[in-house]
Write a structure and sequence with these properties.
Blueprint (H helix, E strand, L loop, with lengths): L5 E4 L6 H10 L1 E4 L6 H8 L5 E5 L6 H5 L6 E5 L8 H6 L3 E3 L6 H17 L1 H9 L18 E5 L3 H12 L3 E5 L10 E2 L3 H7 L2 E4 L13 H7 L4 E4 L8 H9 L5 E4 L18 E3 L8 H21 L16
Parallel strand pairs: 1-2, 1-3, 3-4, 4-5, 6-7, 6-9, 7-8, 9-10, 10-11, 11-12
Length: 323
């Protein structure tokens, strides 16, 4: 009989190899392979002490409730908006996630999106492929270097984006609920004020109920017809309908989006527009970063089974007072 701890994997992990790596240390079950997952869990859920999930995969409360002996959740990703703080903390279940290791790749992609939407790179690529070049030059676009970059949510990823913006000689301001004393950037008191100031408004705030539709019609209006929006955070932070309307009416200059409200479904209205760049949530999707995230998922579990605590707990996770 196996003496390994029993771990349940929720959904599909974004690095397939991690599923294999986990089996080296744990007795792993894939929930997705059960024909009736919730029915199966009612019979078998008591076996599992660990759950591995991904930032983008729903973790319904019923799933946690169907795991009466659950002690640890290890989540693949920096976002924890799918995890129910109250339910997990009430049972003192330890919750780990994968911060920091993805900051560089996410920040790289934010800059890539900014340059793409400003200079029309994706649109220009379509222009060449569609055979339009012989009929005339591609229209002039907008400059990036030296412009104003506003960051909504100056956390660790926001800072990595700001550093890159400095390299482009950009002026940098941000909005967080509270002003930070440890950064050289200008704090502006509201998302509207930041949007009004910005040429490029980059959203890097944490997702979840607290930031739902933080970027609404008023913020878009403040960004104005010369302003661009870049989102590498969560689709839920933007009022997507208001954004589509603003793009259609050219009330903002353009938007470059890696994330959407109802992924992987993107409202088809966006497909008609040339002033938008659409990516399928790939900010952390490099071999190097996904490997580093996978290592931390594994490390959090191994550390938990050795010490009773995960290595990188989500900010609200219960921890023993000795830590
Ligand atoms: C991943 C992410 O694409 O880390 C996050 O929160 O959104 C992305 O890095 C993905 O969610 C990993 O599961």
């Amino acid at each position: 009989m196996s003496t390994k701890e029993k771990i349940l994997i929720n959904g599909t992990l974004l690095l397939k190899q991690l599923e294999t790596d986990l089996t080296e240390y744990f007795d792993v079950t894939l929930l997705r392979e059960q024909a009736d997952p919730m029915g199966w869990l009612r019979e078998n859920g008591h076996q599992f002490t660990g759950l591995v999930t991904s930032a983008g995969v729903p973790v319904p409360v019923e799933l946690i409730q169907a795991l009466p002996n659950l002690k640890v959740v290890s989540s693949f990703g920096v976002g924890y908006d799918q995890l129910n703080e109250e339910v997990l903390n009430e049972r003192e279940i330890r919750v780990g996630y994968t911060p920091d290791v993805l900051n560089d790749c996410v920040a790289d992609l934010a800059i890539g999106l900014m340059i793409d939407i400003a200079r029309g790179m994706s649109a220009a690529d379509r222009y060449v492929r569609d055979g339009k070049w012989p009929s005339g030059p591609f229209p002039l676009q907008r400059r990036v270097s030296g412009k104003r970059m506003g960051i909504l949510g100056l956390g660790r990823i926001g800072e990595a984006i700001a550093k890159r913006g400095e390299g482009f000689g950009m002026d940098i301001a941000y909005h967080n609920r509270n002003k930070r004393d440890d950064v050289p950037y200008t704090w502006l008191g509201s998302p509207e004020a930041l949007a009004d100031w910005s040429d490029y408004l980059v959203i890097a705030v944490t997702g979840g109920a607290g930031t739902a539709k933080l970027v609404d019609a008023n913020v878009l209006k403040a960004l104005g017809p010369e302003g661009f929006l870049i989102n590498i955070s969560r689709g839920t932070v933007i009022d997507e309908e208001a954004l589509l309307g603003a793009l259609q009416k050219r009330e903002i200059a353009g938007a470059a989006l890696d994330v959407f409200t109802n992924e992987p479904h993107v409202p088809s209205g966006f497909f008609e527009l040339d002033n938008v760049v659409l990516l399928p949530h790939v900010a952390s999707a490099t071999h190097e970063t996904r490997r580093a995230m996978a290592d931390l998922v594994l490390e959090n579990l191994r550390h938990f089974y050795a010490t009773g605590e995960v290595r990188t707990p989500v900010p609200w996770s219960v921890q023993s007072t000795q830590q």
